[in-house]
Amino acid sequence: MTAPTIVFAKETGSILASDQHHTTARVAYYEIPIIPAAPLRVGQTVRIKVITPCDTHRLLSTKLALTQYTANETGIQGRITKITSMTSSTTEFLVRNDLPSPAIAHAFIAIPHIQGITVRLGPWARLTRMLRVKPHHATIQSRLETSAVIYEDIPVLRMRLTPPASFLNHDNDDE
What we know:
By secondary structure, the protein is mainly β. Helix content is 12%, strand content 39%. The protein is built from 3 helices and 7 strands, in the order βββαβββαβα. The protein has a 6-stranded mixed β-barrel with strand order 1-2-6-5-4-3.
């Protein structure tokens, strides 16, 4: 079994799943602004990591004008089962979450369509796309970022304040 392709994506929304097998699960929607390590295709296993903008290294971002993101796990890993929509500029895939007891049953991932770079369609899918897809205004306005810095799985720093021992031992206050 090959390792899943990591997909860095921005979450655009979620709804309650209408799946009888996942009564409490949700369906999530993502846009992919970062080119994946391998072009996406039906049958491929992917792991989705959500990215949020950050300025962890302000000097790095101001000197090089790079967009910076923090990437965290979504709990979504599974096969791309089908193409759900195609426009002249975007392809959207459906990912079935194969992890046990998922909070998210399925994810729709949309990516700007660049054959062989962001998406790999087979010959029949390419032919269908050429014949059926008409140029029109895309509903998904995702653009690719070719010079982004991604910091993966940075834990959130939480301060834990420990009160002084004298505060905890308040029985001696009367003395």
